[in-house]
Amino acid sequence: MTMLVHYQTKKDLKAAVGQPLRYTETSIFGEEYRENGTFAVARRPHLQGGGREFFASVTMKDGLIYKVA
């Protein structure tokens, strides 16, 4: 599953490097969020309302966004 993030664009997500991730868990199999590690995220307008859809890979380090690809 992919976690939903609360950013309007991937550019906004990249600008948030160094900050905590604003997200919503979507997996029914347990939490996907990890304070240290890499995982897939998405913005899904049909679920979150308006905006553009995007997908990204986010790397977290010590609970803060370290890298967005």
Question: How would you describe what is shown here?
Answer:
The protein is α+β, with helices and mostly antiparallel strands. The chain has one domain. The protein has a five-stranded mixed β-sheet. Strand 4 and strand 5 form a beta hairpin. The chain is globular.
The end-to-end distance, rounded to whole angstroms, is: 18 Å
Strand order, sheet with most strands: 2-1-3-4-5
Write down the oligomeric state. single chain
Structural class: alpha+beta
Relative strand content: 35-45%
Radius of gyration (CA) equals 11 Å
Compressed to H and E, one letter per element, the order equals EHEEHEE
Unreliable spans: none
The shape, in one word, is: globular
Overall residue-averaged pLDDT value: 91
**Strands, total number:** 5
Largest sheet: 5 strands, mixed
Count of discrete domains:
1
Instruction: Determine the fraction of residues in helical runs and give it as a percent range.
Output: 10-25%
Tally of contiguous helical segments: 2
In a few lines, what is going on in this structure?
The protein is of the alpha+beta class and 69 residues long. The protein is 14% helix and 36% strand. It has helices at 10-15, 45-48; strands spanning 3-5, 23-24, 37-43, 54-61, 64-68.
